[in-house]
Amino acid sequence: MVTYVVLGNFTDQGVRNVKDSPKRAEAFKEMAKTFGVTVKEIVWTQGRYDIVTVLEAPDEAAAMSLSLSLSALGNVRTETLRAFSAADMTKIVGKML
């Protein structure tokens, strides 16, 4: 599985409907399952981003399909970061010259 950290900001539409955000988060978790993606964590944050999500996807195409489907709903804009565990980084740096 590939891990991603998704940073989200509410759109104007998302802010107008912010009271529904927890319900939308649950719906997002269900949507993710249809792409074989597992939502590990969703947290609402103060500061530059409104929402931070950690996902595990079977591949990049599944993550991208989920991201586009979410964006099409119009409530959030996202920035997706590929994440690596300590074990992943150990392997990666082990291949360095």
UniProtKB/TrEMBL annotation:
InterPro entries per the UniProt record, alphabetical: GYD/TTHA1554
Protein name as it appears in the record: GYD domain-containing protein
